[in-house]
Every structure is written in C-alpha cells, then in structure tokens.
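hey
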C-alpha cells in the first residue's frame, strides 16, 4: 500500500516542480486512504540533548481545511483519538532522511527537533515522497541514504534553483557575492564549493580585487574582504588548495588586509612577505613536491595565526590543521627516504669549521624534523628514527652540547628529548658504542651540573631520566648501562649537592667519604667535611642543585641497591640535607623531598644511617624556624613526621623521641608531635598504653626492634633468647647468611652512648644483660672464625660487603657481649 500511495503522489506531482497551490494540496491529501498510514515512533529532542520517546502510532500526511495546509500527523496506536504529533509541512528545506527508516526536522517556529522512526523502510519512503512532492522537488531516489549523502543530494537538487547561482565575478557584484558567501546554510556549502571549483571562480575574484585596488574603491575592497573571508570559512580542502596557490596567495592575503573593523591602520601582510620572509635551505632539497608542501604549510600557519586569528571558527582551524598534518607526513617521509639529504645534514653538523649561525640553522632543521615526527604514526616515526640512527646523527650532538651558545645547546637537547620520547634505547645504544670516551653522556651531564644555562636543565634532566629508567630496559641492556652509569657518571651528577665523591658501588674497605666529621649523635648532618653546598649561590647553581635532587629521588626509587651503596658510601644524604640551610625555599624543599624519599622506602639501611648521623637535625631546625608560617616547608616536614608515626618506623620513632622529645612536647599546634611520643611509648611498653599499631601488632612499617623494654628504656634480651642463640647447632652456625644480614654488619656499627642507637639493633646485648654462657654442644671459639668468614664472603644475592677496618671515632670497639645475633637485621 505504501508503494502504491507513493506512486500516486509522484504521478500527481510529475507535471510541476513548483510548490502546489492550496487546492492541489487539499485534493491530493483528501485522496489519501487509510492504507498510507505506517507504524512509527515519535521522538523529541529535550533540553539535555536526549531524545524523548513520545509514543508509537501511525503516521501520515493529512490536509487541514481550516489551516489550508498539510500536516504530518501521528495517531496513537493504543488510543485512536490521541494525536501524538501534528506538525505543519513547511516549504523550506528543513527535512532530512537518515538511513532507511528515519525522517527528522527542526520546527522553524518553535526550534524543537522531531524525528520519526518507521517500522519499515516502505513507510519512511512513502512519507518522504509525500513531503518532497508538496515542496515541489524530486525525492532523493532510492531509500537508505546516509546523512552526508542526503545532505549532498538535497544541496544538489537545490543547486538547480536560481537562488544558488553564482553572480558573475565582476566589480558591480562583489556585495552580492559577499552576502551569498556569508549567508549560505551548512547543507548548501558542498554544492557551493563545487560550483566555485567548476567555474574557476577564485582566479576571477583575484582579478576583480586587482581592479578594485587600482581604482582605490574602499567599499568594494571591504566587500572583497568579506568574499575571501567567506571562502576561507567554507572549510573545504580543495578550495584551500586553490586559495594557497603560489600565483594567488599574495592577492588573497592582500584582499584580507582590508578589514572594515580596523579603522586605525590597515594590515600590511604583503609588505611582510616582501621585506622579511626568507626561505633558507640549510641542506638543498631537490624534490619539488616537498618544496611546494613546505611553502603551503608556511602560508597556512600565517593565515590562521596572523591574518584571520579572530575570525576562524573551530571547524576552520581543524580543516587547516588537517592539511598541515598531511603535508608534514609527506615532507618527513620524503626526506627520510632521501639518502643524500640526511647524509648532507649529518656532515654539516659534524663540520668543525661551521659558523655558529650555520650550526644553529642545521640544528633547527633537525629539531623541526624530530618535532614533526612526533605527530606521525608509529610505523612512519620508527622509519624516520631508523634512518636517523643509520646516518649517525646522534654523534655530532655531543660537540653541540659543549658550545657556549645557549640556543645551540637547547636545540641539541630538544633533539635528544624527542628521540628518548620515541625510544630511549636508540640513545642508550649510541652512548654504549662510544666507549671508552662516552662523549655524549659526559656532555649531557655537563649541561645539567654546569653553573649556567638554567633554561636547559629541565630538558637535560628529562633526557637522563628517560635513559636511566630501568622499566624501559631489558635484561642485559639494563645491567650494562646501569653499571656503566654508576662506575663512570653518578659522582659527576651528585657533585653539585654532595661535593667531591667517588663513583662505583663496590665494597667499602674503609670509612665512607665524608663520614670522618659526621659522628653519630654529634654534629649531625651539618658537620661533614668538604665543600659546603649550603653556601649561598647564584640562581643558576640553585637550579642545578634542584634538578640533581629530583634525579636522586628518581634513582632512590628505581635503582635499589646501586644507589643505596653509593649514598651510604659517600655520605650523600647528609650532604644533601645541608642544603636545608639555604635561604632559597625551593632548594630547601628539594632536600626535604629527597630525605622523604629515602625514609619512604622503610629500609633499615637508610634508617640506621639517619639515626647515626642525626640527619633530622637540619629538618627539625627548619621546622622550628617555620613554626609561625603556614608555608610549604612547614607542611612538608609535618607530612614527613606523620609518615614516620603512621608507618611506625620504630628506629626513627625512637630516635625522634630521644633526641627531640623535649622540643616536641612544647609543640601543641598539631597532633603529629604528641602522636610520635605516644607511638614511642607504645613501642617501649605495649601493655601500658594499649596495643601498638605498628609492626609489633602486625601493622605496616616493620623495623627491627628489641624484644623487651625494662624500666630504664634499654632494650635487652632475656635469658631464653641468649640460650637460644648459643644453643644453635654448628650446621646452622655455618650456614650462609642473607644479604640483609651482611649489609647490616657492613654499614651500621653499634653505637654505645645513646639509647636511640640501642633501639636500632635487634637482638643487641646491653650492658645490663647477663654475660653469654657456654652450653654443652656449643663452643664460642670456633664461632668467631665462622662469623668472620661469612662476613668476608658476603651474601650470594648481593654485591660483596667487607666490614670497614677499624672502628668509628669516639666509639668503643665491638665486644663479644655486644655482637648482634648472626643473621638479624
């Protein structure tokens, strides 16, 4: 029935394509039978952008004698008297057919969007043909057109109308052309662009502009500005290609100089091109297509950034950026496949006789290529960097990083940063291949630690961070590169904050560097010998120290035992904490951040080192200095202390309570200090104040602690623990200790003068403990050689550790009664 009704409507409208009179409409609508109704759902777009379901009914086009107009009427299928929709059929082109079963439109009077979703395609076709016949135009043809096809077909049929015919490109018609381009609806733009390209309209408009400028017709020039602006806003790539042709682009920019809104002075875009534009070929480019795309990209960027930045909408920006992106892909791909181009560029960079300006231009070209390569797809980007490595383009960058000109160093760093963002292994492989000199790595670290060049240090830090990230390495590469770094370069990176230190992570055969003047319990972190990094320095030096502190934080969290041995070997933590004495708050925060990173590991190596060297001294001094200031330094220190309390790092809690308890008791403005003291009391006597929330109760932050707490505060072992120690079998005594046990004996000699030091050593015998007893089956004499042999061999899973020769200053030599149990932390 729908097909028959559609054929009836087409037969009655075949004689004319103009809108029908009211009598004709009434006659055609009254002739419609009930068979032309089709089942459909009615949808209405609400204020939230969602489609509301109005119900399901039967849709048809009906004529209303009272209104003398046709309406789209949908009657409910549940209640025949209920009208779900009654919308007038307008003569304007507002209806769209989507897919095969949907007709949608926007009511001009109310601005409400409606949509009819038919059960079958025949019903949709029938209604669509009725609407088109009432409007006096041909339907789209076969059903099932998409949105884009429907809009194109609608614009195509409307293009036959005289309203869309282009006026002749003459000076007397410029006002009409400007109005046409500014008022064209979106669904007619495709047809308008087609007409513009078919009739070669843009070159004709350029000739009209030349005539108007010769005659100095100001009004016509203002209209021509609107014409060319309207052409740009059509957002068509083919039209942009014609507007930016080499023979037309200067005239287009000239027409866009006559903006009627600029009353004071006229823009002079063409004068800029004539006087200041220079196309410089650092390396000759022989491909004409590449040259054309380079020029087009420059004109595109000038158009959207200088000529029409206020007038372009988001769609125009997107269309222009898409053209530039496509050009960039073709440029980089063509140049990467040009063997002579990359080789010539590499030779130019490596030429020692090159002037600074020429070297800067070559580096800018390389930087531009790597920047564009970031936008390419992974396959194309990998192809570019493969050619980049094949031509050894990394090697000349070492010399560029040593140049005194900051702009040259910055360009070289940008190239390195772009390569590491793509694949850090490329640069790592290049550095490893430069042995034994490693010029590129030395130059990169030199940029970071040098006093000058503040603006270059963030890029150098990011490159080093990418190179030294173990998560981005695999197996042999990770071990080889990290071993190289800690053998050759780590001491150079740490020098701005730690002074002169030694590289490597090998065993300690003597006192650690800088520890001779940093005695546990006296002097604290500020008494180490050597250059004092806390001395005030220029802003460039402060910047270097800040970035070095950030890198050390990264190393502590990622490099595990390597950085641990380096820090403890060279007393780096104490030296960094001396930076907390400077006036620059950024540097103070960097030092506190590094301290917080070490504590956050909850590693007893670091904890015993912190207690021994009183590393909290400068931190507490900063806390007291900033008590009356609600600033970031104060907040960072409070967070550090709260972390120690919350995680119940017992050795640090005991040290803070013993060393700074009197000062903490006077601080009442926050609860952190009271909580620390309460936590220490819980650790000392868990039964007196309730269960501790730390490791003793299975909580976080497990750390070594003694098993008993007599009233004097000393942790001692009872008799049972002593008996258990000396009653162990000889086989167990001869067993290989764990790596942690060996490390414990290596770095933490037992202090004898402070209660805090006694809390560090789990299982240590105090002077109050009874002397060890020899029991049957166990002998003390063969035990000492076994202990020394095991300590000399070290753990099987960690680097060998040899106890330091001699004892620290002001400390008693280790006695038999104070030796910790073998294998305890």
């Amino acid at each position: 029935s729908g097909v028959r009704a559609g054929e009836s409507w087409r037969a009655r409208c075949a004689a004319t394509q103009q809108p029908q009179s009211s009598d004709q409409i009434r006659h055609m609508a009254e002739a419609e039978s009930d068979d032309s109704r089709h089942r459909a759902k009615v949808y209405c777009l609400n204020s939230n952008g969602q489609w509301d379901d109005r119900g399901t009914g039967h849709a048809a086009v009906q004529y209303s004698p009272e209104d003398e107009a046709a309406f789209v009427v949908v009657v409910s299928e549940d209640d025949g008297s209920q009208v779900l929709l009654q919308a007038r059929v307008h003569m304007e082109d507002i209806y769209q057919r989507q897919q095969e079963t949907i007709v949608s439109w926007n009511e001009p009077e109310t601005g409400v969007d409606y949509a009819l979703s038919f059960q079958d395609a025949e019903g949709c076709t029938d209604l669509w043909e009725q609407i088109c016949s009432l409007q006096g135009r041909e339907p789209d043809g076969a059903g099932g057109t998409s949105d884009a096809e429907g809009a194109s077909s609608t614009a195509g049929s409307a293009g036959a109308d005289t309203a869309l015919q282009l006026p002749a490109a003459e000076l007397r018609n410029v006002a009409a052309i400007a109005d046409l381009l500014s008022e064209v609806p979106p669904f007619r733009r495709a047809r308008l662009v087609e007409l513009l390209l078919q009739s070669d309209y843009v070159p004709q408009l350029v000739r009209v502009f030349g005539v108007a400028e010769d005659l100095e017709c100001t009004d016509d020039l203002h209209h021509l500005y609107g014409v060319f602006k309207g052409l740009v806003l059509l957002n068509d790539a083919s039209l942009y290609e014609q507007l930016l042709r080499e023979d037309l682009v200067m005239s287009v920019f000239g027409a866009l100089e006559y903006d009627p809104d600029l009353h004071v002075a006229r823009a002079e875009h063409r004068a800029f091109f004539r006087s200041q534009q220079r196309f410089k070929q650092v390396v000759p480019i022989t491909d004409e297509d590449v040259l054309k795309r380079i020029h087009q990209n420059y004109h595109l960027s000038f158009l959207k950034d200088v000529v029409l930045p206020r007038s372009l909408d988001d769609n125009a920006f997107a269309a222009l950026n898409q053209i530039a992106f496509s050009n960039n892909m073709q440029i980089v791909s063509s140049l990467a496949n040009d063997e002579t181009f990359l080789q010539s560029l590499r030779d130019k960079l490596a030429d020692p006789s090159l002037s600074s300006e020429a070297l800067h231009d070559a580096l800018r070209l390389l930087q531009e290529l790597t920047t564009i390569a970031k936008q390419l797809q992974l396959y194309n980007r990998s192809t570019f960097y493969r050619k980049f490595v094949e031509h050894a383009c990394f090697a000349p960058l070492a010399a560029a990083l040593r140049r005194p000109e900051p702009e040259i160093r910055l360009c070289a760093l940008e190239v390195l940063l772009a390569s590491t963002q793509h694949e850090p292994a490329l640069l790592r492989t290049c550095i490893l291949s430069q042995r034994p000199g490693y010029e590129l790595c030395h130059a990169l670290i030199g940029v970071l630690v040098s006093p000058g060049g503040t603006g270059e240090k963030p890029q150098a830090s990011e490159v080093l961070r990418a190179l030294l990230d173990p998560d981005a390495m695999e197996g042999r590469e990770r071990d080889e590169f990290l071993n190289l770094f800690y053998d050759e370069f780590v001491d150079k990176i740490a020098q701005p904050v730690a002074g002169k230190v030694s590289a490597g992570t090998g065993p300690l055969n003597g006192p650690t560097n800088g520890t001779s003047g940093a005695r546990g319990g006296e002097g604290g972190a500020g008494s180490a010998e050597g250059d004092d990094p806390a001395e005030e320095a220029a802003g460039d030096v402060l910047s270097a120290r800040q970035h070095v502190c950030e890198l050390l934080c990264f190393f502590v969290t990622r490099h595990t035992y390597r950085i641990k041995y380096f820090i403890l070997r060279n007393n780096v933590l104490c030296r960094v904490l001396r930076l907390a004495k400077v006036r620059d708050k950024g540097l103070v925060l960097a030092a506190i951040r590094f301290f917080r990173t070490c504590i956050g590991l909850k590693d007893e190596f670091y904890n015993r080192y912190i207690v021994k060297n009183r590393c909290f001294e400068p931190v507490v001094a900063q806390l007291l200095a900033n008590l009356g200031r609600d600033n970031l330094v104060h907040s960072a220190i409070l967070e550090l202390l709260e972390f120690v309390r919350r995680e119940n790092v017992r050795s640090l809690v005991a040290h803070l309570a013993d060393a700074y308890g009197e000062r903490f008791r006077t601080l009442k403005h926050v609860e952190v200090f009271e909580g620390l003291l309460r936590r220490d009391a819980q650790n000392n006597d868990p039964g007196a104040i309730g269960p501790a929330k730390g490791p003793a109760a299975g909580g976080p932050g497990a750390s070594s602690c003694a098993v008993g707490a007599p009233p004097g505060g000393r942790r001692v072992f009872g008799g049972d623990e002593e008996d258990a120690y000396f009653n162990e079998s000889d086989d167990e005594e001869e067993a290989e200790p764990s790596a942690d046990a060996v490390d414990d004996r290596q770095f933490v000699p037992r202090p004898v003068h402070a209660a805090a030091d006694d809390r560090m050593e789990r299982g240590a015998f105090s002077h109050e403990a009874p002397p060890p007893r020899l029991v049957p089956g166990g002998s003390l004499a063969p035990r000492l050689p076994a202990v020394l042999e095991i300590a000399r061999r070290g753990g099987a899973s960690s680097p060998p550790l040899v106890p330091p020769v001699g004892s620290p200053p002001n400390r008693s030599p280790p006695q038999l009664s104070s030796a910790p149990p073998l294998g305890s932390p």
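The radius of gyration is 41 Å. The chain has a mean pLDDT of 75.
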